[in-house]
Fold each of these.
Amino acid sequence: MKDSLFSNKLAAAALLTLLLAIGLPVMMNTVRTLASGHHGHEKHDEENPFHLAYIPYAKLEGVSAAAGAEEVKMSLGCMLAEASADRGARGAAICASCHSLEEGGGNGTGPALWNVMGRDIASVDGYGYTSALQGVEGEWTFEKMDAYLYDSQGYVSGTQMAQKIRKDNKRMDILAYLATLNSGEALAFPACEPAGEELADASGVMDG
């Protein structure tokens, strides 16, 4: 016997097929967009867990003070004021694979880091520096070391050291620890002041 609802069922099947053909792609795009936004937020939290608005000096090369003024909310000095030398000592284990960190330590794959902050760049006796660092004048300031640790080869083209510490809080902790590697008191941090006033000192270039 002929199904009296056959036509209705056929129409319903056709409508369902049409809805799936149109609606499924839209639904998938929505899910992908939401997933993408969620992961992006997680990545931001991982790179900047303290939610500090700080742009490393290495990223500011070639950017005018006027262009960067609205983005830079915190200076290097203010970032360092939140840093921990104790955490930095643990983070600096990555440095210890190539450098000695103790007083009187000898050179390894890289030069000894005792008294590194504030000393002249490429000045450790008995270490064969690359020509890239030999050509850099001045001393290791917090600003220069910050940029070097952020992207060593990007900051000093041709340097032997290949290091990229992109997490601001981790880099600040290591800087705070390096400041304690001397025979006297820890090297004083830069003042916590508007970031624009510190940028001038970043235009120089860790030993390697």
Amino acid sequence: ELADQAWLPLEAARLPEARLLLARAFERFGNEARDQYAPSIDGVFEAGLRNVARDLDEWLTRMLEEHAFVPRYFELAFGLRRGERDEHSVPEPVKLPIGVTLIGAIDLVEQDRSGALRATDFKTSRVPETLGVVDGGRTLQPLLYALALEQLFPGQKVASGRLYYCTARGDYRSHEVPLDDSTRALGRSVIAAMDRMLAAGFLPAAPAQLPEDRERNECERCSYRAVCGPYELERSSVIKQRDHGRLEPLFQLRGMR
């Protein structure tokens, strides 16, 4: 709606009106959420909504400081056929030059004064302990989405991709990954390591110890723990010793930053 009103980049004089737009939109989606989820404890649900409203208001205020990049496209999708998408979305997946075909939706595409684009993915979680270009394969969206933008807008410069932890929980931190020769090479190395593992058909669970805590491991953060059970770390230690050579692509991937 800010884009439709031609209020981007947002100026301080427009902030009160922008807050009214935000309040109306939040009330509309809040009512839809009540109907969809039918919360059993209204007080808890309303408290959650108030927290989200505070985060959004702070986010809107911080837009006054961000004039280097101006929002251009919202929910820019490729290979997805459902949901509310930007009109510039395409139904086909995007083939990236690093050897992978990608399906997804970029939350926000921004453009700077020179015309260069930036892909932004919003996060509502806490900021991880470590953040790099690919962080051992854990952080791929900034690089992959920047590469996707190049294919969607051929001939147009793409500056970077970024993660924006856009809540108080994430301290409104922005993590940007430039798109250059070194990050492209790192992307190719990630895909090559994955290709080797897939070609070998050897994909055992082999959780790593978390660097900040030797007593904890990645199993504690995995969504599939219910499938593996609570003792995967003990079983995987045998696999790591017996099949260390076959797991080398995985170890190489984890070392990529």
